[in-house]
Amino acid sequence: MQFATFTRCAASILFCVSLLVPAFAQRPAEGRSTQSQPVEVPFFAVVETIEFKDVPQEEQKLVLDRIGVRVGDMLTVEVRHRIGREIGKIRKGMTFTYKAGSAWGTVKLVISADC
User: Fold this and answer.
1) CA-angle at 29, arms to 27 and 33, nearest 5°
2) Strand bridging mode 74-75 / 45-53
3) Is 54 left (phi over 0), alpha (psi -120 to 50) or beta?
4) Cβ contacts of residue 53 below 8 Å, gap of 6+?
5) Phi, psi (rounded to 5 degrees) for 111
6) pLDDT one-digit tens code per residue, 23-63
7) pLDDT of the residue at 50
8) Domains in the chain, please, with CATH?
9) 12: helix, strand or coil
10) What is this structure's pTM?
11) Are the CB atoms for 106 and 41 separated by under 8 Å?
12) Under 8 Å between Cβ of 49 and 105
């Protein structure tokens, strides 16, 4: 009887832990092909590169100074809000996106002059 209670309790704990560990925090299994599946970007990721599309050279430096993000920095929710706010002040219609980097847990930040 005590073993059955312990087993049920252990199973409940394992189930709760599996619910608490979000999918974005789990690293994909090595050797598994992810080309057919879309690559998920972790909620908090490290900036691998910062790319510009149709942004003049002099505006690129201004953008980098205003957003305060460099390669190697963590891309958090607060940082994403700040990027959106600051690039909107520099030029109307300027946007940014991010996509999965070459390594798990990294992103490529892309800043574009047009929507």
Assistant:
1) 115
2) antiparallel
3) left
4) 110, 111, 112, 113, 114
5) -110, 125
6) 444 455 554 444 545 556 667 889 999 999 999 998 999 99
7) 94
8) 45-112 (3.10.20.310)
9) helix
10) 0.61
11) no
12) no
Q: Which two tokens stand for residue 14?
A: 């394992």
Q: For residues 49 and 98, what is the distance between their CA atoms, to the nearest angstrom?
A: 10
- 């929507």: which residue's tokens? 115
DSSP-assigned states of every residue in 51-91: EEES--HHHHHHHHHHH---TT-EE-HHHHHHHHHHHHHHS
| Size (the chain), residues | 115
Residue 47: name the closest of 112, 97, 96, 106 by CA.
106
Torsions phi, psi of 57, nearest 5? Answer: -55, -45
Task: Give the whole-angstrom CA distance, residue 77 versus residue 83.
Answer: 10
Q: Which long-range contacts (CB under 8 A, 24 or more apart) does 27-35 make?
A: 27/104, 27/105, 28/104
